[in-house]
């Protein structure tokens, strides 16, 4: 006896191929949800309403164990006569029950008849290629998976929504993460049925509207915004991450607000200073400093084109004239800049020892170097460098603050903590001789 797993859409039996319809018609046992079973009111075999997949698997096993082993022939194999048919939504091997069925039922007893998936339909309705899209199913670690993809700033995300993981809960998560990457939201409801609707929604609309339980939310990364910022509504210290333009496909170049505030505290800034921001990413630290100290000169050094572009766009949106965007690689580019009172190193590109050497050479007496490090190897490199420096020049000292922070985010009806990347903030002071 064969177990046929037949994918079906909201268009019901009409959407099945002729061979799939024959398999269903000849089934000795037809298992499916009430909606799926309603598509075949004339089916004469035994019908079993699917409420729990585990119970369905036990029922299938019982049938496989107790039914007489009929000698297969061409007709029974082709038409599935006397077989078990399990009706499922879309493609059972794409975010469906296929994986569990393969684990619980012998593979040689299973035959899959996939239907067009709702995700495939969604991208086709939007006329957008989907071979490079990322998918988040409605089961498993839903919020963790979606959070990870949003933080990576992937270009296309398709989310399978349901009664609990609704478009509104997705919007709540996006809002709580406060990311510099912006998305356009398309809600595709009841795909394949007569009630199908596809529409673009804003984040606020997603939070305020209700949608069909069977929907796909397609998130498309947008180009950097062009609208002006309302600077009067922004805090002077601790600018929200979403106020910045991100670094294209490298959102990891952004220093999060909570870490940024701690870095500023360790820098112990004073007015009218020269500040270097080495590995500036999208310039978030440089912009915070420039707004706090408009008479200071801030040099934002970044080696990536996307980062440099983001720095310049952000400076324009914030209306800053005292941030100087420097596209180049440290430490070579550092020799051309004015000697600094303060240095922040947010990225090194693998040349941390050489960068520290040049920074120590150019740093003015009484100045400080602050590093934000997320790798053990970089911490070891810094400790080795400062230990050697102190032995030769005792007027140097250092301290380390280890930062482990989490933000609260909405996870449906619950609230959970989303951890930021642990950071070690190392402050190296050059004392006056």
Range of helix content: 25-40%
Model regions low in confidence, pLDDT < 50 over at least 5 residues: 70-80
The whole-angstrom Rg is 29 Å
Beta percentage is 15-25%
Query: What number of domains?
Result: 3
Any idea what the CATH architecture of the largest domain is? 3-Layer(aba) Sandwich
Largest sheet: 7 strands, mixed
CATH evolutionary superfamily of the largest domain: Vaccinia Virus protein VP39
Structure summary, number of beta strands: 19
Task: Compose a concise summary of this entry.
With 433 residues, the chain is of the alpha/beta class. Helix content is 32%, strand content 24%.
Please tell me about this protein's structure.
It is built from 14 helices and 19 strands. The relative contact order is 0.09. Strands 13-12-11-14-15-19-16 form a seven-stranded mixed beta sheet, with helices on both faces. It has a five-stranded parallel beta sheet with strand order 3-2-4-1-5, sandwiched between helices. The longest helix is centred in the last third of the chain and has 17 residues, at 376-392. The protein has three domains: 3-116, Cobalt-precorrin-4 Transmethylase, domain 1 (3-Layer(aba) Sandwich); 119-221, Methyltransferase, Cobalt-precorrin-4 Transmethylase, Domain 2, CATH 3.30.950; 231-430, 3-Layer(aba) Sandwich (Rossmann fold). With 433 residues, the chain is α/β, with parallel strands linked by helices.
């Amino acid at each position: 006896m064969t177990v046929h797993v037949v994918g079906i859409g909201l268009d019901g039996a009409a959407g099945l191929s002729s061979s799939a319809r024959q398999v269903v018609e000849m089934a000795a046992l037809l298992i499916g949800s009430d909606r799926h079973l309603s598509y075949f009111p004339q089916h004469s075999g035994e019908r079993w309403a699917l409420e729990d997949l585990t119970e369905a698997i036990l029922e299938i096993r019982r049938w496989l164990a107790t039914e007489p082993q009929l000698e297969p022939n061409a007709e029974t194999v082709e038409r599935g006569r006397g077989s078990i048919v399990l009706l499922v939504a879309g493609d059972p091997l794409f975010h469906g029950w296929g994986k569990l069925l393969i684990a619980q039922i012998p593979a040689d007893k299973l035959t899959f008849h996939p239907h067009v998936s709702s995700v495939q339909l969604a991208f086709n309705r939007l006329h957008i290629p989907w071979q490079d899209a990322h998918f988040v199913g409605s089961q498993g670690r839903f919020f963790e998976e979606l959070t990870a993809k949003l933080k990576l700033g992937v270009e296309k995300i398709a989310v399978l929504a349901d009664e609990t993981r609704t478009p509104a809960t997705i919007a709540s998560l996006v809002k709580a993460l406060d990311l510099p990457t912006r998305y356009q939201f398309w809600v595709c409801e009841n795909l394949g049925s007569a009630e199908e609707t596809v529409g673009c929604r804003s984040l606020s609309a997603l939070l305020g509207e209700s949608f069909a339980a069977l929907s796909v939310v397609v998130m498309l990364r947008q180009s950097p915004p062009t609208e002006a910022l309302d600077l009067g509504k922004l805090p002077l210290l601790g600018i929200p991450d979403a106020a910045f333009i991100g670094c294209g496909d490298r959102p990891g170049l952004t220093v999060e607000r909570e870490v940024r505030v701690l870095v500023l505290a360790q820098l112990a800034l004073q007015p009218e200073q020269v500040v270097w921001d080495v590995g500036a990413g999208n310039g978030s630290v440089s912009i915070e400093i420039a707004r706090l100290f408009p008479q200071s000169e801030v040099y934002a050094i970044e080696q990536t084109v996307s980062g440099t572009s983001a720095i310049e766009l952000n400076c324009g949106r914030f209306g800053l004239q005292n941030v100087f965007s420097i596209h180049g690689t440290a430490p070579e580019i550092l020799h051309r800049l004015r000697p600094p009172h303060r240095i922040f190193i947010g990225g090194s590109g693998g040349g941390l020892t050489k960068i520290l050497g040049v920074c120590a050479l150019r740093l003015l007496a009484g100045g400080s170097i602050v590093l934000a490090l997320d790798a053990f190897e970089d911490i070891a490199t810094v400790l080795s460098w400062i230990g050697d420096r102190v032995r030769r020049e005792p007027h140097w000292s250092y301290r380390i603050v280890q930062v482990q922070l989490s933000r609260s985010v909405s996870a449906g009806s619950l609230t959970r903590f989303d951890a930021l990347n642990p950071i070690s903030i190392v402050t190296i002071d050059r004392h006056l001789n």
